[in-house]
Design a protein that fits this description.
It is a single chain. The chain has about 350 residues and is of the alpha+beta class. The chain has two domains: about 120 residues, Phosphorylase Kinase, domain 1; about 220 residues, Aminoglycoside 3'-phosphotransferase, Chain: A, domain 2 (Alpha-Beta Complex). It has twelve helices and ten strands. It has a six-stranded antiparallel sheet with strand order 1-2-3-4-6-5, sandwiched between helices. Strands 7-10 form a two-stranded antiparallel sheet. The longest helix is centred in the last third of the chain and has 24 residues.
Amino acid sequence: MVHRSTRDPGSFRVEPVSTATSRGLDLPAISAFLTRQGVAVEGELSARLIEGGRSNLTFVVADSRHQWVVRRPPTGGTTPSAHDVAREFRVTRALEATDVPVARTVALCEDLSVIGAVFTVVEFVDGTAIRTQSELEQLEDAEIMACVQGLVSALAALHRVDYQSIGLERFGRPRGYAARQLRRWSGQWDIVSAGDSTLADRLLRRLADSIPDQRHSTIVHGDFRIDNTLVAGDDPGVVRAIVDWELSTIGDPVADVALMCAYRHSGLNLVLGTSAAWTSARLPPVDVLAELYEATADIRLDSWDFYMGLAYYKLAVIAEGINHRYRAGATFGEGFDTAGESVTAFLEAGLAHVASR
């Protein structure tokens, strides 16, 4: 797995061993761990911090012949269950047996004595992460539509997986997803919020008063959008891997689609600290994305306004969580200082979907 843009080969920043170590990546310790796992490590490891992520720290780690991707939680400012790299390792390992595109897993380390945190190692995927509007602008209109269809098809493929048949029957409870999401995200809000919670409380109340019946239970990614996938450099319609699975569980697939659509909001630019590709006007509007999913997956998007309201609530909590880590000094890279500015806009967008409740 790697967030790499073949159209922007300079998007990586090489990290010297000493710097990477100070940022929570002890390369000698990781080398020794991989060797104990039976992974051939040839020579001293180097690391490159992958920019663009706003949650877990993600590095490309390489020896003289191989490349892997290592993920670990932030070094501080974390909230319960919000940075579960072990969880994403387990779901991607199970999905290797399906037609859902994922990076192949290598090793999971839950021994905190190795680098001070749980971390995962997966194979490097040679693909393109389309993060910014400038990267998207390099595509022709036909390529963009092919990319959108590829993304929707990959999400539909995930939702078609029989999670019990691949050993994920205990990955989450099949019913009561919406209520659990409200409890989880409102709990996160209580931890990270540092300002006025009036809008958040109002949206939460309206959502709690309108929880719908759940018609489908599937694996949900929980954070699906264009830059959480890697596409083929020569064909953006081919998804090589879906990445960033830390929020995945068993739940209602409508929630996945709603969050994908809510991410089209311009507030995502503030969260990512850049003009995000997924907010571009060249991409289809929300209603077209929703219709495309229904046609591809053959799943009706019932209770749409509720799930859009829930999606915007989650985005507000995510943005406030990034701001929380920024205030705690536990973030690295550009753009973390603007995420908090999006919170009010996300909450207002959510309220617009449940205004009559």
